[in-house]
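ok, trying the design again with the full structure, not the truncated one.
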């Protein structure tokens, strides 16, 4: 017991120190530029330091919540001159505030030990670290509520998409927010209802419309407080705060520091925490799958030949699985007369059988997403080359959920003359695809494609380069190739994306159909 207690106290100091020094070395080795390099991160022990902080901070959160206050750290007790007054200074806090204060004790020495913006610059463009810090903050703020919801509603526990195959150490870090995929309680056919998610995850007051200006408003307010500004750049609609190196951040809270650095933690709630814990970008609901399935059914019936639906970059394969389940259910219910559905079905003469498409999920495995349904290991290009039969009367519809940031696969879709492709996720000014090549947003048409080196050099970036539409702007790529765009608006109320928030619904379902 003594050894365990001593180990915990050492980790309280060791974790933040390791992480701070690792991020500093990472920044120095890149000469001021941070490219995604997980191998280098591991060499510098950054993931290990993160795990130490997660483990110790979450254990301390539990203890502090029971006490109803944040106890001073062991170092503070040693060096504080007013330790005798700590009981008098303690003020009652709600559980969420206690948990956030505990986390801030661990993270603030890492983020900005000396409260200067120059320290934030070392990790501002480190996506893996920022993702981890965001998840830790959301869990501290909303984790208790989420745990209560998962315990109170068994239907959510049974949802296959929320099952995570985790090692025991990872389970210890995150707590039991999700269930194991090998437990008998899992029902592969269960999908959560949108109304349930909206109610229990506190989204009833959230807007149903996209408003990019609202999502950036908080970041701009914080930037102005420290004498900075926010630049909106091409390549996914990402926003970057530019602040004087010596700007004082001492008056900013943990939430404000993360928000200013691009962590997107303001206006979020338990739903966003759930997405981070389960590592999902699009949470499928019963109504959404039925709506998308109904749309695909109509498209299938309108075509005289066979229909092939390809879900590319399918990840865990669940969208294709749920759509196959929908068509199987639809086929059975439509083929069997209502008066006979509780008895043995009999064939009906003179009526054509309902048509169902062939649905195939493919993924190249580069993101190492655990499969929860059948997925064929193929890249997007291999999928189109091997599965599309040019000598056959065939309608091809491509589905793609959350196309990777700054990549564009739609050129491949159009080059194979697919009849339609449907993109799911953030659009026009988001983190899916390329805002010009994929979506045709003229605000992001520019000959300048800055690398990270350019992004961190404030004096090399001119705002107008990214805001002014050139006078000779041609048609959007999809228009030039003969495709017409329209949003499947009926699906919007049932679509839940990872970065939705109370002031903006980020995700959408957009169809591009060949004319």
């Amino acid at each position: 017991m003594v050894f365990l207690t001593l180990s915990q106290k050492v980790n309280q100091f060791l974790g933040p120190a390791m992480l701070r020094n690792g991020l500093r070395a990472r920044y120095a080795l890149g000469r001021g530029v941070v490219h995604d390099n997980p191998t280098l991160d591991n060499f510098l022990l950054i993931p290990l330091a993160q795990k130490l902080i997660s483990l110790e901070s979450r254990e301390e959160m539990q203890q502090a919540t029971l006490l109803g206050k944040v106890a001073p750290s062991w170092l503070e007790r040693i060096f504080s001159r007013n330790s005798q007054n700590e009981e008098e200074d303690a003020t009652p806090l709600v559980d969420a505030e206690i948990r956030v204060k505990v986390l801030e004790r661990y993270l603030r020495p890492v983020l900005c030990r000396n409260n200067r913006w120059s320290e934030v610059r070392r990790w501002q463009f480190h996506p893996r670290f920022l993702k981890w810090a965001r998840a830790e903050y959301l869990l501290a703020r909303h984790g208790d509520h989420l745990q209560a919801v998962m315990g109170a509603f068994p239907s959510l526990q049974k949802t296959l998409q929320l099952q995570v195959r985790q090692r025991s150490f990872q389970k210890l870090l995150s707590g039991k927010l999700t269930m194991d995929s090998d437990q008998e309680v899992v029902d592969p056919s269960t999908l959560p209802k949108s109304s349930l998610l909206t109610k229990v995850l506190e989204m009833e007051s959230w807007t149903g419309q996209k408003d990019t200006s609202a999502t950036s408003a908080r970041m701009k307010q914080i930037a102005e407080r420290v004498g900075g500004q926010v630049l909106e750049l091409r390549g996914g609609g990402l926003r970057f705060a530019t602040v004087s190196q010596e700007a004082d951040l001492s008056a900013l809270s943990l939430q404000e520091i993360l928000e200013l650095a691009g962590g997107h933690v303001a206006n979020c709630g338990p739903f966003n925490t759930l997405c981070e814990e389960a590592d999902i970008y699009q949470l499928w609901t019963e109504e959404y799958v039925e709506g998308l399935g109904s749309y695909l059914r109509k498209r299938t019936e309108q075509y005289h030949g066979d229909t092939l639906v390809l879900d590319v970059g399918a990840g865990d394969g669940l969208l294709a699985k749920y759509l196959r389940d929908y068509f199987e259910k639809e086929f059975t219910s439509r083929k069997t007369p209502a008066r006979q559905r509780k008895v043995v079905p009999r064939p009906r003469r003179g009526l054509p059988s309902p048509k169902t498409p062939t649905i195939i999920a493919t993924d190249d495995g580069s993101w190492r997403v655990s499969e929860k349904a059948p997925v064929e290991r193929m890249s997007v290009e291999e999928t189109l080359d091997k599965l599309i039969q040019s000598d056959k009367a065939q309608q091809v519809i491509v589905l793609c959920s959350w196309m990777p940031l700054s990549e564009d696969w739609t050129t491949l879709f159009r080059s194979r003359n697919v009849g339609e492709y449907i993109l799911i996720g953030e659009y026009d000014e988001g983190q899916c695809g390329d805002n010009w090549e994929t979506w045709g947003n003229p605000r992001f048409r520019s000959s300048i494609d800055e690398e990270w080196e350019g992004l961190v050099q404030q004096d090399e970036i001119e705002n107008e380069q990214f805001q002014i539409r050139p006078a000779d702007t041609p048609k959007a790529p999809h228009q030039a190739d003969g495709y017409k765009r329209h949003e499947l608006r009926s699906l919007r109320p049932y679509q839940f994306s990872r970065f939705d928030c109370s002031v903006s619904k980020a995700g959408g379902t957009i169809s591009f159909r060949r004319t």
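Keeping the full-length input from now on. The mean pLDDT is 83.
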